[in-house]
Design brief:
single chain; 6-stranded mixed β-sheet; Tyrosyl-Transfer RNA Synthetase; Structural Genomics Hypothetical 15.5 Kd Protein In mrcA-pckA Intergenic Region, Chain A; 43% helix; alpha/beta; 3 domains; Rossmann fold
Length: 431
């Protein structure tokens, strides 16, 4: 593999928010194979969409001929990162962390080549943190940290008003120590992370300079926000969009990307696909309704990466089956063609199967509850009255909430697609 300057690639695609020394780091990538790492705290048994940006950065490092390290925070997760938090994280046991790590490792492994003899590594910082001698750690590492400087870091300042525990106060020191250990053992020169990790990353760069006399670098990725709500990208009214299909079904995962805001299409194609920049620019420049084709391609590419091309193809075909193709005139090459799929292949929306006799006497509101699109009949009635309930693409009217469902009479060919709002769908099948 011909080595490329991964920093330039990441910068061009929009991954870089801050860097400790952009000129120096660019030159380093020109001169040698660079070892870089990103850490992940083990706070749940699955990664979510918010983790994809650092994972994609690691994947670009790998594809560009450099050496990425995915660091599992088996040790630091016992403390809890205060960054971006207004309250303390729930303390987890070692068993909690091991169980969570078992779910996360295979997800992260999809983004880097962990083959025998390969460059990429996946490590766990509990290997060097669990058995630390506290007094030695304070004397050897703690003496290099200024409390005044630590308290000025954004990750601590925003917590002081609510109360910062001494346990959390140690987090920056531990993360900096991780960088030092990886610098000594693996020759790691770069740490990357989200923009809320800037203070922790700089602390590691400084610790390496003080203790090892070497030059290390830090860079952060930007925080992505929904342009309409200001919420973190990947957070929905139903919660986080997970990579575990048991938490977020593949179809729902696909639809999340298919329904992103028009303003974000170009940047999301740059960040979350490996398509050339010329191609992402062409797709993002599609006019009016054809921009939905770019969203389909985005949704297919991300779903294929996080799940599989086969599951991504099924999700695409299920969407087409329910709502039609974004470009029925065929003016733009479709995701299905790019994936080598045909519309004859089987694909299903999330499905609820009910016996015809079970449907007798049900109202539309009750059907939405049975389909799992409303938690109660009152919520279903409210959804219908507010114009958020659909039968196929036809909105239900306010007079429909108490209309009875008579067997399969409302079900074309024995089935119908129900929709709640813009993104939640269920197919009801009469058996």
């Amino acid at each position: 593999m011909e080595r490329q300057n991964a920093y330039r690639i990441l910068a061009e695609r929009g991954f870089i928010y801050q860097c400790t020394d952009e000129a120096g780091l660019t030159q380093l990538f020109d001169q040698e194979e660079v070892t870089a790492y990103i850490g992940f705290d083990i706070t749940a048994d699955s990664l979510h969409v918010g983790h994809l940006l650092p994972l994609m950065a690691l994947s670009w490092l790998d594809r560009s001929g450099h050496r990425p390290i995915t660091l599992m925070g088996g040790g630091t997760s016992l403390v809890g990162d205060p960054s971006g938090r207004t309250e303390s994280r729930r303390l987890m046991t070692r068993d909690d962390i091991l169980r969570n790590m078992a779910g996360i490792k295979p997800q992260a492994a999809k983004f880097i080549s962990l083959t025998t003899g390969g460059r990429a590594l996946m490590l766990d910082n509990s290997d060097w943190l669990i058995d630390l001698n506290y007094l030695e750690f304070l004397r050897d590492i703690g003496r290099h940290f200024s409390v005044n400087r630590m308290l000025s870091a954004e990750c601590y300042r925003q917590r002081l008003a609510e109360g910062l525990t001494f346990l959390e106060f140690n987090y920056m020191v531990m993360q900096a120590y991780d960088f030092l250990v990886l610098n000594n053992s693996q020759g790691t020169r770069l740490q990357m992370g989200g923009q809320d990790q800037w203070g922790n990353i700089v602390a590691g760069v400084e610790l390496i300079r003080r203790m090892a006399g070497g030059t290390a670098y830090g860079a952060t990725t930007p925080l992505l926000l929904d342009p309409k709500t200001g919420a973190k990208f990947g957070k929905t009214s139903a919660g986080a969009v997970w990579l575990d299909q048991n938490k977020t079904p593949v179809y729902d995962f696909y639809q999340f990307w298919r329904n992103v805001d028009d303003q974000q299409v170009h940047s999301l194609l740059n960040l979350f696909t490996f398509l050339p920049l010329t191609e992402t620019a062409r797709l993002a420049a599609l006019p009016d309704r054809l921009l939905n084709r770019a969203k389909e391609i985005l949704a297919y590419e991300v779903t294929a990466l996080c799940h599989s091309p086969a599951l991504a193809g099924q999700a695409f075909l299920a969407s087409v089956r329910a709502f039609g193709a974004a470009d029925p005139a065929g003016e733009v090459e479709t995701s299905s063609k790019a994936a080598g799929l045909t519309l004859a292949e089987e694909a299903e929306l999330p499905t609820v199967r009910l016996k015809a006799q079970e449907l007798e006497g049900l109202t539309l509101a009750e059907l939405f509850v049975l389909a799992g699109l409303a938690a109660s009949k009152s919520e279903a009635r409210r959804l219908i009255r507010q114009g958020g309930a659909y039968l196929g693409e036809t909105p239900a009217g306010p007079d429909d909430e108490n209309r009875p469902v008579r067997g399969a009479a409302w079900l074309a060919a024995g089935e119908i697609v129900l929709r709640a709002g813009k993104k939640r769908y269920k197919r009801v099948v009469a058996t």
